[in-house]
Amino acid sequence: MVMDRITDPIEKMHLINFLCHLGVSYHFENKIEEQLNHLFIILPELLDDKDYSLHTVALVFQVFRFNGYKMPCGVFSKFQDGDGKLKEEVVGDVKGMVGLYEASHFRTKGEITLDEALGFTTEH
């Protein structure tokens, strides 16, 4: 009922994340899966079109990866400079840095962007 009333896809991602962190998501597995299937189709376009913060992008990435979706690590490219390194200005974004640190733990072998993100966030 609550999930259906939320229209903003990012708010839905926050709700799904909260349910997972609270350990009660198993009560809503079918509804969460239904929402994630829908969101997985529309969110990549939203992430490209809107100027979301590092924290928001990291949250979306984590929720999808946690639930078994192959979210591409390229969503973090707008936070990288021309050399593929993370921009130094993200260091001042504490929530974003923590989110990126957590997201980097969902990396798979060969995802250099997330390997570097782990080192970068750990260092800073």
UniProtKB/TrEMBL annotation:
Signal peptide: none
Protein name from the UniProt record: Terpene synthase N-terminal domain-containing protein
Pfam families the record matches: Terpene_synth
Keyword Magnesium carried by entry: yes
Family: Belongs to the terpene synthase family. Tpsa subfamily.
Keywords, alphabetical: Lyase, Magnesium
Domain Terpene synthase N-terminal: 8-124
SUPFAM superfamilies: Terpenoid cyclases/Protein prenyltransferases
Entry-linked InterPro entries: Terpene_synth_N, Terpene_synth_N_sf, Terpene_synthase-like, Terpenoid_cyclase/PrenylTrfase
PANTHER family: ALPHA-HUMULENE_(-)-(E)-BETA-CARYOPHYLLENE SYNTHASE (PTHR31225:SF93), OS04G0344100 PROTEIN-RELATED (PTHR31225)
